[in-house]
Amino acid sequence: MRLSAASSSPVSDHVPAASRSPLHAGLAAELGDRHRQRTLYELGDHPLLERQRQRESNARSYPRRLPLALSRAQGVYVEDVEGRVFLDCLAGAGTLALGHNHPAVTDALMRTLHSGLPLHTLDITTPVKDRFMQDVLGTLPATFARHARIQFCGPTGADAVEAALKLVRLATGRSTVLAFQGAYHGMTQGALTLMGNLGPKAALGGNLSGVQFLPYPYSYRCPFGLGGDAGVAASLAYMDNLLSDPESGVPRPAAIIVEPVQGEGGMIPAPVAWLQGLRGLATRHEVPLILDEVQTGFGRTGRMFAFEHAGIEPDVVVLSKAVGGGLPMSLVVYHERFDTWRPGAHAGTFRGNQLAMAAGSATLAVLRAERLDVAAAELGARLQQQLAAYAERFACIGEVRGRGLMLGVELVDAAAVPDAVGARPAHPALAARVQRECLRRGLIVELGGRHGCVVRFLPPLTITAAQVDEVARIFGQALAAASA
Ligand code: PLP
């Protein structure tokens, strides 16, 4: 097993603001106590789940692996209708930076609801929107924010990706895009075209043309068969050549779009040197760089934005998930030189969700005041160390990796022969068993990555050190049970 990189640092036990609100603190304490007293849960049968199976689309996904009907939640805990309490390390796929029902968010929502503000304004401005735009720009590096423009989208991450593509195509007059193997940018037709995973798109046919996929720096399964620094250097040389060679067969693209840490693709952090190299070659070849920070944004990786680890800046950044404080919201923020599209070039009815803006502003204020980016770095290192320690006992752990509180454990077939870079084949059945054993022990985790073999940890950034230790302890028990 290899452990890749979050540096360790002393951990302070973070005290979330939720504990200062008696109502929320009371519920958090109650759910925490009940979680400690839990027994091994039996899962899967409840009339709500049965009705969901009968009524909801076959495309439903999470309930198949997480068969839960939820009733209450506070902080990192959720409770189901049968009174069972779970530690939630999925947190709305990383959306709930402050956890469930944070008092700052619920207070902001209540205040907005009682203020008489129109809840829906298309893209007409309001004091809440004005504040929100200022708050978003305030979280971005000043050098970028000074020349930035914001496009409100409608209101999913995928729609913001669609908008970003249109923006750069119109601004550059070019049509093709470079994307990366393993990428996830959403499920609408354009975003899907940028997706590495063939599963959801192969059967559709008719994907947009003009997307060229490049290898992502996934060291454990290095596409160049090299790994580490040699893999990074090969990848940068390959891309530079592709953009320089007049006979590469690839026209100069409208953009390169990249996740600084691939989330759905398996919690793969792009090395800092690779991100710096990518930024450099995008500039040299005059290709706009779109950073998709939908999952990594707002403290998750230990910095406010994952690109800050590399000291680089985007031309265009795509934001969603945490920016709406748990409510639907997505934005494209870009340098003003790309602002060449015509009025109405991108629209969407639900761009004016005032509650999401109020919740988003409240979330950003807590993130900044409580330095949750620093907490994510410290607590992520603490969790990563404990997960990595299991690799000494469990040969089925291929790699533990990630940044901040965006961590993954890749599960492999321990009995198989490793390949030339030391990677063993993925073990999807084991990963599914581990996820289920976690759930039976009161821990919600999701799977991702190639063949769904990476256990993904995306807890709220307000998780405490004691809760991190409990997550690691349950995961160890689940590994033991699933490997027995
Ligand atoms: N981009 C990234 C990096 C994501 O992780 C996601 C969703 O997980 C999206 C885009 C799409 O966001 P949405 O599901 O809101 O459309």
Structural write-up:
It is a single chain. With 484 residues, the chain is of the alpha/beta class. The chain folds into two domains: 2-102 and 371-483, Aspartate Aminotransferase, domain 1, CATH 3.90.1150.10; 117-369, Aspartate Aminotransferase, domain 2 (3-Layer(aba) Sandwich). The protein is 38% helix and 15% strand. The protein has 16 helices and 18 strands. A seven-stranded mixed sheet has the order 5-13-12-11-8-6-7. A five-stranded mixed sheet has the order 1-14-15-18-17. Helix 5 packs antiparallel against helix 13 and helix 11 (228-244) packs parallel to helix 12 (272-284). The radius of gyration is 22 Å and the shape is globular. The model is unreliable at 1-15 (pLDDT under 50). The chain binds pyridoxal-5'-phosphate.
Question: What's the SSE blueprint?
Answer:
Layout: E1 2-3, H1 22-36, H2 47-55, H3 62-65, E2 70-74, E3 77-80, E4 85-88, H4 91-94, H5 103-113, H6 127-139, H7 142-145, E5 148-152, H8 157-172, E6 177-180, H9 189-193, H10 199-202, E7 211-214, H11 228-244, E8 255-258, E9 261-262, E10 268-269, H12 272-284, E11 289-292, E12 316-319, E13 331-335, H13 354-369, H14 372-393, E14 397-403, E15 406-411, H15 428-440, E16 443-444, E17 446-448, E18 454-457, H16 465-483
Parallel strand pairs: 1-14, 4-16, 6-7, 6-8, 8-11, 11-12
Antiparallel strand pairs: 2-3, 3-4, 5-13, 9-10, 12-13, 14-15, 15-18, 17-18
Helix pairs in contact: 5-13, 6-13, 11-12, 14-16, 15-16
This protein binds pyridoxal-5'-phosphate.
Pyridoxal-5'-phosphate binds near residues 156, 157, 259 and 263.
